[in-house]
Amino acid sequence: MNNEITILETKDLCVNYGGIQALENINLYINIGEVVTLVGANGAGKTTTLRAISKIVNIRSGDIIYNGRTIVRRPSHEIVELGIAHCPEGRRVLAKQTVYDNLLLGAFIRHNQAEIKADIQTQFQLFPRLAERRHQLAGTLSGGEQQMLAIARALMSRPKLLLLDEPSLGLAPAIVREIFTIIENLRATGMTILLVEQNANLALQIADRGYVLEAGRITLQGNASELIVDERVKKAYLG
CA 108, CA 221: separation in Å to the nearest integer? Predict the structure, then answer.
C-alpha cells in the first residue's frame, strides 16, 4: 500500500436536496491502496458523498480532485472512464438480464471484446457462485448473490477506485462475512476502496482509516484502529 499518493480528495464539498443541506464542507482523502470507510447513522450523508463523487447528484459547491485534477464538471460516464466505479446501495442489478449480461454492462466503456471476455472469466474465478449461475436471470439470485454480481459488475470497468455502498444491507450474517472476505481479497490485490457500511464494527475492522458523518458533517476522523476503540464511536455506532 502506498500511503503517500492521494487518488481522491474532496474539498469543502456541499450538496443540497432542494432546500435541505445534505452535505456541508466535507473534506476527506483516499490514498492509493487504502480502504477508507464512512461511518454514520441513516441519513448522515454517507451515500450522498459517494453519489456526489460519481456525479449521480450535483454538488452545490466545493471540489472533487481525482489523480490531481478536478472532476466536478465531468458527467457520470466520464467518471467511470477515469477509473471510478460505483457499486450502489440496494445492488441495482438488471433483474431481467442474465448474470453474464449484467457483467457485460459493467464493461460498457470498454471496446476490446477479448479483454472483456477474459475479465468476465476473472470475475467467475473471484465469484464461483456467479459462474454457476452465469445464464440465470439476475432477479432470481439470492440477495448475497446479487451483491456479488453488483461488485463484479463494478469491477468490469477495471476501476482504480471502487465506491462500495452498504454491501451488507439486508443480508444474513453468514453472507455478510462472505461479502467482507471478498472485500478483503480485493484489498489484497491493491484495490482502493471507499466503503459506506451500516455495520460500523465490520467496516472499521477492514478499513485503514475512517470518517464519522453526522447530519452531513464530518465529526470525527482517524485511523480505523483508533476509531473502533473511541468511546464516542463505540457508544453511537458499535453498540
Answer: 36
